[in-house]
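Known limitations

Structure tokens in this collection are predictions and should be treated as such. Users comparing against experimental data should check residue numbering before alignment. To illustrate the layout, the record for Homoserine O-acetyltransferase is reproduced below. The input appears on top and the generated tokens appear beneath it.
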Amino acid sequence: MPIRIPDALPATSILEGENIFVMTEHRAMHQDIRPLRVLLLNLMPTKIVTETQIMRKLSNTPLQIEVELLRIASHQSKNVSADHLETFYRTFDEVKDYRYDGMIITGAPVETLDFETVDYWPELVKIMDWSLTNVHSVFHVCWGAQAALYHHYGVPKHNLDEKCFGVFENRLIKPSSPLVRGFNDVSMMPHSRHSETRYEDIVANQKLEVISYSDECGVSIAKSIDSKHFFVFGHPEYDRDTLKLEYDRDVERGLDIKVPVHYYPNDDPTKAPIVSWRAEGQLIYTNWLNYYVYQTTPYDLEAL
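Generated tokens:
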């Protein structure tokens, strides 16, 4: 999938170096088709890393996608330059009058906090409410999934006694779902979180269904019955070294952190991590775009 992103965005040169088809704004203007418009609300502190990881996943079907980056205006990011945010990101006030085929809401390192105590919660609620009328389908990741389930459906999250940290085996609860078309019966997904949304709380709501489950770390994928909302509690977009960098950072800080499980050979952090989630990690984004965005979104977005 050629993704249309600003020519000067750091992700552009990284993805081109991986032989991923990144369409320049100039070339996209000369194609007589309507690209899918996808809004990425990036709540992660490592903005450049996260935007690159997700754009990599949006790049493997024959569709053209125009990706716009959205940030929270009520929270000051400390891990990326103000110049990067001003150049490449928009605020809600700048996009609220537009409509989008799809939207992705990332996770955030605030999962132990009550939702209402997160400093940007009121702004996030405003964006989530706006998405009900201005976005065709929304894909939520990790804490973003927990936040959306809580806000839209009243499903609580629960803090864990021990961090869910590693790469976990998942089995399909609903293998007929187009979202997991092409998945193996058992697949792997990275997780890194201190809280969970429980299976029984999700299925108690008749508007929701669980698609995939891990015996070790609980629900991995769920969605709304109407296919408006998708909830992924792990990180299928993670790179090979993402968990390693997080583990090394916490060790350096002197934190009590266990080695991420099922990630290093024999759980030995002196060895290079093995990627066991790449195929399904790609498929979940591709399937969402194909079956739940491209094939169902109106050609005229004003018809949303």
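For this record: The mean pLDDT is 89. The two ends are 24 Å apart (CA to CA). Please report discrepancies through the issue tracker.
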